[in-house]
């Protein structure tokens, strides 16, 4: 079965400040609020990974690429 829902997953980052991670999330996903971006960053910081968004494959790939360009570790996972 082909998955049509993919999670963009952000991994914990020891190289950038929390403020930078929040900024990068807001730049990449402008529909997020600052509070939502903060919660995603804290989830990644506290648990090792945080779900940024769940969407279709091509959109998820675009978000992953944009976050990687901003030097954040992330990936996409199928089946959400």
Chart the SSEs and their pairings:
Elements: E1 6-11, H1 18-28, H2 34-47, E2 49-55, H3 57-69, E3 74-78
Antiparallel strand pairs: 1-2, 1-3
Helix pairs in contact: 1-2
Describe this protein's structure.
The chain is of the alpha+beta class. It has one domain (6-78): Ribosomal protein L7/L12, C-terminal domain/Adaptor protein ClpS (Ribosomal Protein L30, Chain: A). The protein has three helices and three strands, in the order βααβαβ. It has a three-stranded antiparallel beta sheet with strand order 2-1-3. Helix 1 (18-28) packs across helix 2. The longest helix is centred in the middle third of the chain and has 14 residues, at 34-47. The protein is globular. The mean pLDDT is 95.
Strand order across the largest sheet: 2-1-3
Radius of gyration: 12 Å
Number of helices: 3
In N-to-C order, the SSE pattern is EHHEHE
Q: Could you give a short account of the major beta sheet? A: 3 strands, antiparallel
**Regions with little confidence, pLDDT below 50 for 5+ residues:** none
In short:
By secondary structure, this protein is of the alpha+beta class.
Relevant terms:
alpha+beta; three-stranded antiparallel β-sheet; Ribosomal Protein L30, Chain: A; about 20% strand; 3 helices
């Amino acid at each position: 079965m082909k998955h049509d829902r993919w999670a963009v997953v952000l991994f914990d980052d020891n190289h950038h400040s929390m403020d930078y991670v929040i900024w990068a999330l807001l730049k990449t996903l402008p529909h997020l609020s600052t509070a939502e971006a903060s919660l995603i960053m804290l989830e990644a910081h506290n648990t090792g990974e945080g779900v940024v968004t769940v969407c279709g494959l091509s959109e998820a790939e675009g978000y992953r690429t944009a976050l990687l360009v901003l030097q954040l570790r992330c990936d996409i996972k199928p089946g959400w």
